[in-house]
Amino acid sequence: MKEAVTIDAKGIFYRELNAKLRQVVSNGTQKIELRNVYGQRYIGTDLDKPVEIEIFGTPGNDLGAFMDSPRIIVHGNAQDGCGNTMNNGEIIIHGHAGDILGLSARGGKIFVRDDVGYRAGIHMKEYQDKKPMVVVGGTAQDFLGEYMAGGVLILLGLNLKEGERHKANFIGTGMHGGAIYIRGDVEEFQLGKEVGIAELDENDHSVLKKLIGEFASHFDYNAEGILKHKFIKLFPLYLRPYGRLYAY
Amino acid sequence: MKTYLPPKFIVERDDSRCIRCEVCVNQCTFDVHSYDTEDDELRSREENCVGCHRCVVFCPTEALTIRRNPLDYRENYNWRPEVIEDIIKQSETGGVLLTGMGNDKSYRIYWDHLVLNASQVTNPSIDPLREPMELTTYLGQKPDRVEFDSHGLKTELPPQVKLEVPVMFSAMSYGAVSLNVHESLARAATEMGTLWNTGEGGLHPKLYKYGDNTIVQVASGRFGVHPEYLDIAKVVEIKIGQGAKPGIGGHLPSEKVSAEVSSTRMIPKGTDALSPAPQHDIYSIEDLAQLVYALKEATNYTKPIAVKIAAVHNSAAIASGMVRAGADIIVLDGLRGSTGAAPKIIRDNVGIPIELALASVDDRLRQEGIRNQASVVIAGGIRNSGDVAKAIALGADAVYIGTAALIALGCTTCQQCHTGKCAWGICTTDPWLTKRVNPDIGARRLSNLLRGWSLELKDILGGMGINALESLRGNRLHLRGVGLTDTELEILGVRMAGR
User: Are A213 and A223 in contact (CB under 8 A)?
Assistant: First the structure.
């Protein structure tokens, strides 16, 4: 059993790399450092132990897809499908993330320091104690939180200039569960038809405080400074957005 | 608003036989029968009758008959009653017409225009009652070549799944159908050495023990998809499309999201379970490959990954892409594939007949030299062992049955699946109704069906002088067409009877 292992991923195909990860994790290794990662996919996918994987470089698509427990720290940008159908664990990205971040995730946490691509948080869902949480430091592209059925999605807009709006349109289209919190300016036309805007209550503030506290400690921000700014909360107007569409 | 819809059925009650036991009142879930205590009389609200025959079968004195309402419109081939009544329904509701089951229109059923061969004089037929006859089928990618050394097989085979009978139970999700239906399917599949499919609504932990005979589905909603779900399965199936509603997602209405369904799907009670139309991580063949390999990684390359599509115009080219994307099994669901709920206009008008899709896909994969890289499974309208044999001869490795399995459990194809009121307790999650399917009896009925079909398949093979299903697979010389055009024969790769 080894406490920490370093793997040089340079020139290794993902299948080989992931087999190696399985092997070192089954040996009881707690902490793994992956050096020179160049686009290898599915890192962390078939690992079900709370190990810590630190990635230096650019992991490929589906980072942590179907993942159940590991903690992944990326020093670089993540690509598409990060946290796809994730069950549990944590992904911390010191950089940007691509499209469909956290697609259908049902648990775990994802922190992205900078921007995310299209459809981030799409169809995340929650059940009892399982509740996915995503915090994005920068801004997002269209369809943020589309089809969202549960969980928490926070968009901070820390890199927006004074007076600059968030980029995304169709925010929360088809949303029927969970909550989206947005810091920074958003016009109403940017929102999907199925969401409403609410003032934050005490519970919302405690959710924000906790998650933004974690975000700030990961990326060395001042949490209080972030929290001082005004947030809006988006909530689903209907549990059944398409319930009245049909004739029987 | 007063409805202009006339009743579809007439309920006839023979008063001399009726003993006022009220079984019909209790069995009907559509509120047709009621008992008037004052007049000691049973009455019928015929406009509610869907023709499911639950009351007829359970009436202890056979006092009931259900007939079609003979009410005729003026004859008009264009404006048939169904067309008129659909317009009435929509003018009264302003909604998308929903329906259940599969396409019920009169598109040609090609199985009925294909006939099988038998041995006469020039080669002997085999009597399956006394000689060994093999239906064993292996699903999964087959290697291009195999090598042997002194220890035996040297080539490492991709994961294979063994079926004792080439008939599996099609994907029907928990939520659409009840847990008792799932249990009946799982037990019958286990007993008969075949597979059943969870559909996209997750798998109840009570059924994990049948994992070795279970195909789990990963669909756009990703309901109940978690590492344990993938681990216990024998095969993981990615659902892209469904024959009854190609290109359409699903909305499981919150009425059907009971406590148990919500825990299996892992969604909150009381919300609709929405399956988006596309899988948002798949916009191309390359993306499909990404999910196929994500699932292979998630299961450490120990299980075949199936990909299911609805049979549509470009199926052959798409199938080629699917195989190249790493699918070990490709599943084609045809025009007649069924559903728990779909827009009627989609069910009745979108997709292509499975026979043509199968023939063209099998051809294409052969032409490209990649047929061995994936098994081909078809679904959508398989009614009996004759259809199975013809499908195998056209090139399928195995078939899925959905509707046929439900009929074995009591379904009378009344097409009310979308209402959640199934009087036979099949397509519902109402705890009072789901008890109507007893898993002990359900499993027995399903096993009986497969046993019957197996015996018939062996008879068919024996008649042809073949002793293994493998020899019939893709052997279209054993088929002839009847009443088909040259183009149809060409696509099916079959000669006209007499040639």
Answer: yes
Kindly identify which residue of chain B lies nearest to residue A105, measuring between CA atoms.
Answer: B222
Residue B263 has a pLDDT of: 87
Which domains, and CATH codes, for chain A?
A: 96-236 (2.160.20.60)
Cα–Cα distance, B239 to B377 (Å, whole number): 13
Hey, which residues 163-192 in chain A have their CB within 8 Å of chain B? Answer: 174, 176-177
Cβ–Cβ contacts within 10 Å for residue A195, how many? 24
What is the pLDDT averaged over residues A203-232?
96
Judgement on whether residues B377 and B246 belong to the same structural domain of the protein = yes
* Whether residue B196 is found in the same domain as residue B260: yes
**What is the reported pLDDT for A248?**
67
Residue B166 falls inside a structural domain: yes
Q: What is the pLDDT of residues A181-193, one digit of tens each?
A: 999 889 999 999 9
Range(s) of the domain holding residue B48: 9-95
Same domain, B321 and B435: yes
Using DSSP's 3-state secondary structure scheme, residue A6 falls into: strand
Average pLDDT, chain A: 94
pTM for this model (two decimals)? 0.95
Say yes or no: B277 contacts chain A, CB-CB below 8 A. no
Number of H helices, E strands in chain A: 3, 12
Share of residues in chain B with pLDDT > 90 (%)? 91
Task: Identify whether B132 is part of a domain.
Answer: no
Global ipTM? 0.92
